Amino acid sequence: MKLYYSPGACSLSPHIVAREGKLPVELSRVTFDGAVRTTAEGEDFFVVNPKGGYVPALRLDSGEVLAEGVAIIQYLADQSSETLTPEKGSMDYYRMLEWLTFISSEIHKGFSPLYNPAITDEAKEAQIKKIFGRLTFVEAELGNHSYLIGDALTLPDAYLYTILRWSKKFAMDLSGHPNISAFMARMDAREGVKEALKEEGLEAFTA
Ligand SMILES: N[C@@H](CCC(=O)N[C@@H](CS)C(=O)NCC(=O)O)C(=O)O
């Protein structure tokens, strides 16, 4: 399998899942140069992911490409002999799907407007306020257990960690969220996370 990624982008989530799952995933860095997007192998990335040329995308051993981070991490978990999801059909399994959807639509896509260089200061401030609103719930949940679903890592933890790393870029102070801060430190300390960060040339969040 080959994971198309950009350092520190949302593709870090499947990268962490691959490393935590001890899966032999090859990496291909995608270079974004304006409207031109090229893989490490020189392919046009819009051909690899015709939905919009965005990372992550996973090339399977069959040659097929699977896109959308939430789908990719569930595929990876199913390939791994490590336990990265609650038992299928259990209530916790549906909680996992609930978290993945919440992180994708309410937090990940909450950050997206901040990357628009044309955003006004007022709009940026309002957007950050909205993200912090969503984090109130996350902070409360992480007060009950070490990870989002109980005391073992599952898929949404890799996704949440990846997205919340972006808070630094926008000078969002997480110190008023001690449970989230402790979670970020806990994730930083995991071997799979350390490996993925090293391979992408990134620092630990708490560094
Ligand atoms: N719906 C996609 C969105 C992925 C996404 O937002 N990728 C960003 C990086 S975090 C990207 O490649 N943006 C470039 C673009 O949208 O043109 C998913 O959830 O996987």
- How many domains, as an integer? 2
Which shape, going by the Cα principal axes?
A: globular
Strand content: 5-15%
Helix percentage: 40-55%
Largest sheet: 4 strands, mixed
* Average residue-wise pLDDT: 97
Poorly predicted ranges: none
Using only C-alpha atoms, the radius of gyration works out to 17 Å
Q: Please state how the strands of the largest beta sheet are arranged side by side.
A: 2-1-5-6
What would you call the quaternary organization? single chain
CATH class of the largest domain: Mainly Alpha
- In CATH terms, what is the architecture of the largest domain? Up-down Bundle
Order of helices and strands: EHEEEHEEHHHHHH
SS elements, strand count: 6
Distance between the termini: 31 Å
Give the class from helix and strand content and strand pairing. alpha+beta
Number of helices: 8
Overview of this protein structure:
There is one protein chain. This protein has 207 residues and is an alpha+beta fold. The protein has 2 domains: 2-79, Glutaredoxin (3-Layer(aba) Sandwich), CATH 3.40.30; 91-190, Up-down Bundle (Glutathione S-transferase Yfyf (Class Pi), Chain A, domain 2), CATH 1.20.1050.10. It contains 8 helices and 6 strands. The chain has helices at residues 12-20, 45-48, 69-79, 91-111, 121-141, 155-164, 178-188, 191-200, and strands spanning 2-5, 26-29, 31-33, 36-38, 57-59, 65-67. The strands form 2 sheets. A 4-stranded mixed β-sheet has the order 2-1-5-6, with helices on one face. Strand 1, helix 1 (12-20) and strand 2 (26-29) form a beta-alpha-beta unit. Helix 4 packs parallel to helix 6 (155-164). The chain is globular and about 45 Å long. Bound molecules: glutathione (GSH).
